[in-house]
Design brief:
single chain, mainly alpha
């Protein structure tokens, strides 16, 4: 397979997956019924959810300045904002391609070397991953009885325990192998893991580390509140238990990370999470579409404007 074919597949395959997921989600609810949910939704909560989402994006753009400063560069806030929105927009084409675009933008307009700018983005993602793991841990702690009972009713508890023990043993053996092996793959993985650890440690060594940590927590608090507030827009999802909100948010977040901005997968992920709580599939999928559509519309508008205005704002460059 040549490079040109590989690039085409990177674009086409995610889009095909998105189309299939859109078809699957719409097979669970008629288009007419979905339109009815959109018409009857309380748009005050949808707009409030959009505002919370906007705050999270602005906070992410401001947080980036703390990562760039130790490199000896001053990142102008407008450029940071436009780069962040451009990132989200480009990620709808090829997953994670937006991060490359983001680093390229500040290379062109702020003079930050690409590899250094991209390194700060990787460090940011590590911080976000840690917070996401924290949310998962909190969910497991708060809803342990419910989650345990859910799996115990559907799976053999002994098999789950045996499987968990085997997983721990395999992971231990894997890390021992990676630590001692001199194979090319092991060396690459060691280098990658070392870079991750180094990226995490730079967060605690930076000058404004507490401001960085505050913005990181603020961003994810806005994400969760955005999900919760938007759920109030439909009568059927307005009284969701805390467990449903947290598990639904986690499931939806993974769908965005795994596909092109959650195209098609977001409503399916919400439906899968809410089905655990015996919430009807129609309002579950409808809420997923409302949540995804509103946030996507914001990204298209602000991301598109950012790509147009970037060269105008930086015309002297």
């Amino acid at each position: 397979m040549n490079k040109k074919t590989a690039k085409i597949l990177k674009i086409v395959l995610p889009l095909l997956l998105g189309v299939l997921l859109v078809w699957y989600s719409l097979s669970k609810i008629s288009v007419e019924e979905l339109i009815t949910y959109f018409k009857n939704a309380d748009y005050f909560y949808i707009i409030l959810g959009l505002f919370l989402g906007l705050l999270s994006h602005l906070s992410r753009a401001y947080r980036w300045k703390f990562m760039i400063e130790p490199l000896g560069y001053t990142l102008r806030f407008p450029n940071s904002i436009m780069a962040v929105f451009a990132t989200y927009l480009v990620n709808y084409t090829i997953p994670r391609a937006g991060e490359i675009t983001r680093a390229t933008i500040i290379t062109n307009y702020e003079g930050v070397p690409f590899e250094k700018g991209f390194g700060t983005i990787v460090a940011e993602r590590i911080a976000d991953l840690l917070v996401m793991l924290g949310i998962i841990s909190i969910t497991l702690f708060l809803e342990f009885d419910f989650i345990y009972q859910f799996f115990a009713e559907r799976f053999d508890t002994k098999k789950i325990i045996i499987g968990f023990v085997l997983l721990v043993v395999l992971m231990t053996l894997f890390f021992v192998f990676i630590k001692r092996s001199q194979s090319k793959i092991a060396i690459k993985i060691r280098s990658f893991l070392s870079g991750l650890v180094e990226g995490i440690m730079t967060i605690f060594k930076m000058k404004h580390k507490w401001a960085f940590i505050f913005h990181t927590l603020f961003i994810w608090t806005m994400y969760v509140l955005m999900f919760y507030v938007t759920s109030l827009s439909l009568e059927e999802t307005s009284n969701l238990p805390l467990a449903a909100i947290l598990i639904g948010f986690i499931s939806a977040s993974f769908s965005i990370a795994a596909t092109n901005g959650g195209i098609g997968s977001y409503p399916v992920a919400v439906y899968a999470a809410f089905s655990i709580f015996a919430i009807a599939k129609e309002p579950s999928i409808a809420f997923g579409w409302i949540m995804w559509s509103s946030q996507t519309l914001m990204i298209i508008v602000f991301g598109g404007l950012s790509l147009i205005y970037l060269p105008i704002y930086n015309r002297t460059k």
